[in-house]
Amino acid sequence: MIVAGFGFRADATIDSLENALTATGARKITAIAAPVDKAQSEALQELASALGMPVIEIPAELMQSASTMTDSAKVREKRGTGSVAEACALVAAGDGATLTGPRVVSKDRLATCAIARGVRS
To answer: Domain map of the chain by residue range?
Structure first.
């Protein structure tokens, strides 16, 4: 499983999310993941629909258990993890998943995306 995890502000658009995803360089993903409180946002649902991907909702307590490459103090204070995008990708990809690299930020700075590869395909 290859998961694109997202973190984003409320005013992020589908363009913000697409830009962040493109910036990861990922050629193929099998799912999209985001925090429970953001998973139903219009922009994320539009992206999922356009890509024909399911959205995996990640509870806060599971995000907090993920070991991220990025460690933003601001995000850690607010969300209990160093990177929402990285944590969501890792949790959704399952036990033993690894990040393909640190999260990337969209040009408009409204969204982040990270890719995690699970042990199973």
So the answer is: 2-117
Which residues in the chain land under pLDDT 50? Answer: 121
Q: What is the DSSP letter of 101?
A: S
Q: What's the N-to-C CA distance of the chain in angstroms?
A: 4
Q: How far apart are CA 43 and CA 49, in angstroms?
A: 10
Q: Which CATH superfamily is domain 2-117 in?
A: CobE/GbiG C-terminal domain (3.30.420.180)
For 85-117, write each residue's pLDDT tens digit.
Answer: 999 999 999 999 999 999 999 999 999 999 999
- As given in the structure block, the two tokens for residue 24 are 């990861």
Identify the CA nearest to 4 among candidates 16, 26, 52, 13. Answer: 26
CA–CA separation, 119 and 44 (whole Å)? 25
Distances (CA, A) of 39 to 4, 47, 48, 73: 13, 11, 10, 23
